[in-house]
Amino acid sequence: MSALAKRLGLLRSQAGTALPSVTPTPPMPTTATRAQWPRADGARSPEEVVAQLRKLMKLRVPTPAKRPSGPVDRALPGEEVAPGLRYLEQSAPWPHDDGELALYDIRHEPARRTDLLAFDTETTGLAGGTGTRAFMIGAADFVEGRLRIRQLCITTLGAEREMLKTFSKWLRPETVLVSYNGRSYDRPLLTTRYRLARLRDPLIELRHVDLLHPVRRRYRGVWANCKLATVERELLGVLREDDLPGSEAPAAWLDYLRGGSADKLRRVGLHNAQDLRSLFGVLEAMRDEAAVDTVVVPDAVDAPVTDWAFD
Length: 311
Prior knowledge:
The chain is α+β, with helices and mostly antiparallel strands. The chain has a seven-stranded mixed beta sheet, sandwiched between helices. It has a two-stranded antiparallel sheet with strand order 3-4. The termini are far apart.
């Protein structure tokens, strides 16, 4: 058989029909290489990974906030009467020749001028509730024929209790509170803060004249709205310039707590002081016309309110 096979192979080669030799294919490796993710300890840093993800998701790279290179302006007016609590007192002439104000036109009993105390707060928000706190309390009253403006401002969270205790000392049983929307906002907010601080609430039993309600009764539908700024312009002829809106007050205070500039916080103090002067201006204008001929709202005080704006 082997001889026959050799003979047949020889004949096929002569006829040109021999099969080509085939080189055997080497066997496949036992372990195939698999695609792998880059190792966590590879060359790319976490910052590079985040940058790659932002690029894939087409996100804008945030610009870091720039702080001034020089010293930060941290100056606030007044004096520190307790750790983290600042006190500022000013006075202004307020011409008047009556010791008692007739308030029948605004549906209130008469009140002695020396018993009136206008108050206004600057807070961390407008929603109210236990999460909102007052970081500034301003009050105005009459002393020896002049309008006295006192303001308390906390520069640390821990000073809130001392601020509440100081404000309570300004109140007497015969005090008549004057506010603008204070019955619905400022007083309940302070009442909550007194309770959380485990202090007696000195406001709850005091007589309260909220000027928002008589203004609405008299001027709703006459003016575009009854905001205090509108009342000042229409009733008192006061137009604020460079006034910091109340909505920016929380951010101004929080920025100061975080080490930022005091510039906007001083403007909050200016805003608060103007509110206090306007409260008495509105009260004078809204009370019985027979008891008052003109309404005088001083533009400045002897110790200027502009002390809140340092050069």
